[in-house]
Amino acid sequence: MVHLKTEEDLVLIRESAQILGKAHGEIARLIKPGVKTSMLDKVAEEYIRDQGGVPSFKNYHGFPASLCISVNEVVVHGFPGNYELRETDVISVDCGVYYKGYHSDSAYTYPLEGVKPETLLLLERTLESLYKGIGEAKAGNRIGDVASAIQTYVESFGYGVVRELVGHGVGKSLHEDPEVPNYGKRGKGVKIAPGMVFAIEPMINLGTKNVVQERDGWTIRTADRKPSAHFEHTIAVHEDRTEILTTHEYIEANYTYKWRNKSQLSKMVL
Description:
By secondary structure, the protein is an alpha+beta fold.
């Protein structure tokens, strides 16, 4: 069942999303070679709790951390730990905040400065696909329109669209209906209505679409061990517009490597 949100609900989800955006900004300051992923998790949890929130992911079905930190070929659900970031890594940071009874959810994939151009392009195009999906997330359309926009765009570059993992409704529960795949057909799926709040999160691989779950029961990596990218926003549908509730602005202000501004990557031809 899809739970439509009232304006009163949205006020609280926006507050949750602001805490989340600023937590991402605190993490962005720290991402550099030599930093342990456990440090990123510690900083995020402390910030969220200092604002009166709770990390949505911690202890969710047994997940042990506040952040999903997924490096290189790990698509999602990686554990923070003693791993130290390297110059050639890409690192996806997925975070959720529970505040005053409501969740928000967003993710961003960072390239460090030694990342290859083809991997930077994957990140750039995955981020672009997120906004193409958001552009179709409007009242009267269907979830398949969102999914098709993402799939059509990234597959035009030969990338693999992960099938096993999808976006989802967000509200009083972290994962609600509807499911929001990153692949599908226009005109199919749940009809989008005012009051819907859901997370759109392209998970796109440089190589094959196929993934493998590691023995820890959580970590998902690409089957061919090529890099993956993951970007996510929580959005709200209104009668006349679509609102992006979460924000990457604090990330882009605080991350030292201004990779998108320097390169205009999507215009590159390899």
